[in-house]
Give the backbone structure.
Amino acid sequence: MQSAVSNKAKIAKRVIEVLDYFDFDHPTATVMDIVRRYDRPQSSTSELLSTLVDLGLLYKDLATRSYTLTPRAAMLGSTTQPDFVRDGRLGSLVDNLAAQTSLSVGVFGMVGLEAQIFSWHNGEPPLKASTAKGIYGGMQESLSESAVGWLLLSTVEKQRRDGMIRRLNAEASEDKQFCFPEMVKTVERARDCGHVHGKMGFGSIADVCAVLVKGPGMARPMALGIVYEPGENTDIEAMTALLQDAVASCVERPEETNTEAFQHAQAA
């Protein structure tokens, strides 16, 4: 029974990995692309992709033997998300910031005791990382190991947050343990400011400047960050202001939709 449950969990994980693969830099994928990214067996990966085609989540180009996401993949779960996520404003914001700054931009969320990259757009040139695979959406790392993790921790109420920090320290490897009082102060500074700048983590030596993304209909806050190589001549205050203004325009002041414009025209 345990083996059956474990196999089902592995299959679910591999389905999400496939969906995570597709991003701004990877609009299409082949079987070998997925195999190389996630170190998966070729035969089972090919079978999985075929199944996702049958389920209407992927299209297959018979000429190139490559796959692309279908609109259904984008629509799954979207109706329960905040407006700025459902209508694509957040995704467009990430792309626009990357184009405007030529730097890498990410959206990060909290999953248990991990910070996860929800969305990733590489800058030019792509961000350096400790592995050839680079940085990509879906990656997870302990909340204590990155500045965005500290920012996300700061959104948790204090009593629970302190318990989480203690657990993070207890479960960390010896080389990644930290001073509990110092970490508490770091997280509280992030809470008071609503933004952070510091180490990116996720296998990179880069730094990140990040702000919280909060809005109506959100179960949990996210973080939006611009990532840059250490030593770059970076104006942190200007970058923070850029992010704050971008989030405000995306979340708090949405542009009038076509439907609203039509309704106003009809009323006139």
